[in-house]
Amino acid sequence: MKKISLVLIMLMSSFAAFAQVEKVHKDKDKDHMEHKEMKHMEMKSHDEDATMYSDKMAAKLSLNAEQKADLKKAQQKRWESMKELKAGHRAEMTEEDAEDMPQEKAEMHEQRMKIQDDFKEDIREILDDKQFARWEVMHNEEMKMDKEKMMMHKDKSKMKGNKKDHDDDGSEY
What we know:
Layout: H1 2-42, H2 46-61, H3 65-92, H4 101-126, H5 129-164
Helix pairs in contact: 2-3, 3-4
Signal peptide: 1-19
Region (Disordered): 85-111, 146-173
Organism: Gillisia hiemivivida
């Protein structure tokens, strides 16, 4: 009787161990799929992205055809400005600029904010007051979600970085 109960206990504990391993694999698969989706999103052209954005806003804000076309143009203009900013920034970056990195980041942030403000002004001209108020609420929610995603990504990166600082026995260095 003792042997049977011992065998049953060992079987149950082994099932529990396998269940935990499976859960880890599922989480990794989920992260992998999210990463693949993000890569797919990055592969879209700016024209496709602008079309999707104008279609989405047309549905949510009840835009007419002229507003939809103007919104698409504004989005394309914004993408082109960002593309030029990034290209210029990459061309200027050298190893010598590493010490000026905080200043470079601040300048780039300021330029991105100017592009965003210009886009917002374009939107204000395209939409009526009621539509603009609804757009602004949606836009702020999207920005909040994007910021949260960035913070989660930074937290994951920090956690991965901390794992590299530990030896196999769990001690630092």
